[in-house]
Design brief:
Number of strands: 10
CATH class of the largest domain: Alpha Beta
Distance between the termini: 52 Å
Number of domains: 2
Number of helices: 10
Length: 304
Amino acid sequence: MSITLRGSLRLRAVSLKLSYHIVPRRPMASSSSTAAGPVRLVLFDIFDTLCTPRMPIYEQYHEEVLKTSLHSSSISPESIRQGFKIAYKEMNQIWPLYGKHTDPPTAPEDWWAELIRRCMVHAGGDEQEVLQVMPRLGPALLERFESDEGYEPFPEALTTLVRLRRKGVKVSLVSNADPRILKTLDALSITHLLSYPPTLSWDVELSKPDPAIFQKACESCGESVGEGVIMVGDELKADYRGAINAGLEARLIRRPGEWSDGAVRAPEEDLQGVHVIRDLDEVVQEVDRRNLTQNPGRPPDKPA
């Protein structure tokens, strides 16, 4: 039996899976900064694009475990790391879309609590001991990752949003996340810098790289897909390829150094022909080049 934050919750497995929608073929937008038109809208991925864990997630989980009575010698940061991967895969197979279509529907908080329980069992914890600590461990981890204790914005993230808005460019987000991410965005002072609310998988029941989720994002921002709408993200398939297939422009951000443990990277990625940027400042610089061509009397904006 699974314990959730709201007590005993009976979840019934459903076979629903996010399906890829067939969308009309549209003219492909250029992925190159040589595109002549002005930039109208910039869409950003969230994790590993605008923000990153303050420390590896599995280490943060282990810190919270040490605050409980769950002292199994087999539970370590590495065992949690592996246990999380197994639990996350299980949850997405049995209760996709964060349990939205289970009967009865599951709240995202309960979905994550069940994932945490499974993670700890897979990490080596005794099942009964894990059940006993869940009333404390579950809320502690949920609250941690809904705050700036779990995540931090990249140094240039907030100023990038501010500078783009000052230039009259719309900004919003596209994420395969549930509504809990909204609390994180508030805590990181990102929400109030957006032109429009984020487009989330939970809300639109679509998932990157499905082209339809990018088209939904454009619609919610009052823009049509095509040249002048740029998607910025760190995942080649989900963010870059998905946006290109939807008819948007795309920029793949790959910062120098190591990436977070949760970042999706193929062992041998083919980046030939892919427009790669090293930081978000490059997006602002591109907007300066392209939009000043349309408004030559306006000087470039200085960093905030």
